[in-house]
């Protein structure tokens, strides 16, 4: 079974919105074993929409559209789908009743224009919308199932989950599925990682391996094509084990997991508490940590010691030390971590000081130079990094490196290379 | 002149990558007066690529492809373009020389597979790649210009700017262009904003008006279709003036401008300095402020007083006050702002304390309740907000509201409603 996704909306073709719906639907289809043939995006233009839907229905067994189901004259999906399927539009009283009830509950007046949304191509199955007014529908067009959903992501997703997914599962048994898992690494460069896995990268055809670099680290994606989800998991597990052996201690999480959540879990289970002292990262570390629900269980406080006076005043760093060694130095970094820990009473503290750029660099202390410190009851260690990239990238890399030090500390792994 | 964009890559159809290249190209084309007919995305599949390119070249005068120009066997764009254009592939010695030189400069060995990138369809114009190895090309296919660029955004953009843009400008005089400008607001709800501009929203056809809500606020986009960029600017200016009158004091910036940069400029020109005291935002405000280059000129320090002890210890908030009124209270918020300012010596200080959720809420102090304080030499004021959304959304909204208070303070605008 193959499918095609058609996103409708002039704003897409003007580049004002990026079509993220198609990617989301494609991921769901891959898991259902439905092969995606192509995406198309067209504007709110009757002729072009008709052309796109005819093309899609002529070559794909399942065609999913998003957008064009709103109440205005620009919303043409109902009309064009009816034309392509050679049906007339039928007015459904019960759709109006449901819309009226929804507006009534929200205390807003019911706009007349919404009546347009009650017209559905004859013989189509109505896909109800649990979170908005516009219903969708499924229409048989030749050998194709044309499935029309709204463009609002929240509504589209809810309708896909509730109605489209079971519908697709009922169509025909999937002959195979595609599943992937991402292994997230940090602290290793893309080229180094490629070297380390070059042979399995070349030889592995199922799962395939993909590598993608971000400021936070390098992701390795394993994608398996198998008959069932269980088989895919098994193949991915096997190659994943090899990956873990090749990349000891550098994989911090899977899929969408973020380092701040991973570290948060570790601090929680170990009954540890944390404080931060940030200069060049300006609060980014504490901000990332406190995005995690429940972080008040382990995060005590953060000192954003942006100015030299802040460093001396808030964390008692000797002004003479700053003058002698400079604010960006291992010595100041060490004092920041140590004093943040002792003043807060936290079991561990992180510190950063560096040159985030774009200005402020020198031959001796270039843009991208960052010292990161970690202090616990027994010792305080500092590490020197030289990050590349623009200001925000340097800050992100520094925050990631600091959290990675903390992860390694929690696991009892060596902190340095 | 109309155009069509074809993005190539199986990872797109698996939903692993979102195609942002097409949107970027579409925005450039709109400014050049080129009407975009459609987008297509296809996998690295010879048959489907051929089908997509034939379709595109049959209906659009300009067809731009991205992706499939790498050195591996999966990279089929050269081959398929040659087939669709009925040309043979020609080996260009000078492309190899340039690639070898690039590898030599970077100190890496030259991989044999890169020789594939030296094959270009006969009669095509080569589009050189200033930032990578893969060259692109422009091939006449019937009445169409088929322009093939790499998928790496940085390379694609550089090649578009340097070669494709001048090429398109030379093709035929544009009969009109599309230009937009975004007016960014905060502190007004989408529904309230819609009410305020309902009549101009209905009556204005050129520019058209689009409204888009984010956690940071509501963007209003004006899009004009005119003969020249100057005319578009004029029409947008005129409607923009009406918009500014309708939305007094709520527009903080244009297009991609962010509130932290706007506020940074204001603090700089006014020779003001800033400190922050953050509880529920956990360093997000200081992090946003210090993302701006040059923020060390006005940002002195931040206190991330996440725990109650942090509040008392770092900013001398009376523990009895916290016990009596609660950490989330106007009184504690006021003390935080006031003491952050006096301790740091900053001319102004911001403070936050609230319930970011998902847990920790009560009937009296629900999730989303946030107090924000602003202290200057003459007074300290606090404001109560009730934000909706998940934890990160509440934190983002709170940080935005705090920065907006500071913007209003700098401009001498009323802080409350």
How are the SSEs placed, and which strands pair?
Two copies of one chain form a homodimer.
Chain A: E1 2-8, H1 10-13, H2 21-31, E2 35-42, H3 46-59, E3 62-66, H4 77-84, E4 89-91, H5 93-106, E5 119-121, E6 125-127, E7 136-141, E8 144-149, H6 153-171, E9 177-185, H7 190-203, E10 208-214, E11 217-226, H8 229-246, E12 251-254, H9 259-269, E13 274-278, H10 284-290, E14 299-304, H11 308-315, H12 319-325, H13 330-344, E15 348-354, E16 369-376, E17 380-386, H14 391-411
Parallel strand pairs in A: 1-2, 1-3, 3-8, 13-14, 13-15
Antiparallel strand pairs in A: 4-5, 6-7, 7-8, 9-11, 9-12, 10-11, 15-16, 16-17
CATH class type of the largest domain in chain A: Alpha Beta
CATH topology assignment of the largest domain in chain A: Molybdenum Cofactor Biosythetic Enzyme, Chain A
Name the poorly predicted regions of chain A: none
The averaged pLDDT of chain A comes out at: 94
Most extensive interface: A-B, 75 and 75 residues
Side-by-side strand order of the widest sheet of chain A: 2-1-3-8-7-6
What is the rounded distance between the termini of chain A? 50 Å
- The percentage of residues in β strands of chain A lies in 15-25%
Largest sheet of chain A: 6 strands, mixed
CATH architecture verdict of the largest domain in chain A = 3-Layer(aba) Sandwich
What does the oligomeric state look like here?
homodimer
Sum up the overall morphology of chain A in one term: elongated
Helix fraction of chain A?
Answer: 40-55%
In total, how many domains does the architecture of chain A comprise? Answer: 3
CA radius of gyration of chain A is 28 Å
Q: List how many beta strands of chain A DSSP finds.
A: 17
